[in-house]
Amino acid sequence: MTKTIDAVRVAATTPGLPDDTRRLIEIEDAIAKIRTQIATADLARQRTGKPIDPDWFHRARTALRHLNRERAELVARHSRRHRRERLKDMIIAVLRERHDSAAWSAVLAEARARLEREEAC
Question: Within 13 Å and on the Cβ side, how many CA atoms surround 35?
């Protein structure tokens, strides 16, 4: 059984996971940790009456802002990619309807051959 502490590390190192998804998992974990630290510091401030170190608080908020910006960029890039993949699926569906099985097999064979040549380079 995976311990709660190791869950993010395990999720981020899962085989077959795209790099953007791995990074998004890591960013969201870092954001949660910073928010927890800020909340803990605020509770300690309320309990003890001592103010939060302003330099530490500024660094934490800056890190949070940068992580949120990077997260937004990854999410935007992922949504564009997802739309592109759906478009490719629609193109395949249209072409498949227009070709008989023999012609479709020839199209697939040509596509696979091109892919193998590209991967060989």
Answer: 9
Q: Assign 3-state DSSP to the chain and report helix, strand, coil percentages, each to 5.
A: 85, 0, 15
| Surface-to-core class of residue 22, CB atoms within 10 Å of its CB (0-12 exposed, 13-18 middle, 19+ buried) | middle
Q: What is the DSSP string of 34-55?
A: HHHHHHHHHHHHHHH-PPPPHH
pLDDT band at 12 (very low <50, low <70, confident <90, very high): low
Instruction: Say which DSSP state 121 is in.
Output: -
Buried b (16+ CB within 10 A) or exposed e, 97-115: eeeeeeeeeeeeeeeeeee
pTM, two decimals, is 0.59
In this predicted model, what pLDDT tens digit does every residue of 19-56 receive, in sequence order? 888 999 999 999 999 999 999 999 999 999 999 999 99
Which DSSP state fits 16? T
Q: Are residues 16 and 3 in contact, defined by beta-carbon separation less than 8 angstroms?
A: no
CA atoms within 13 Å, Cβ hemisphere of 88? 6
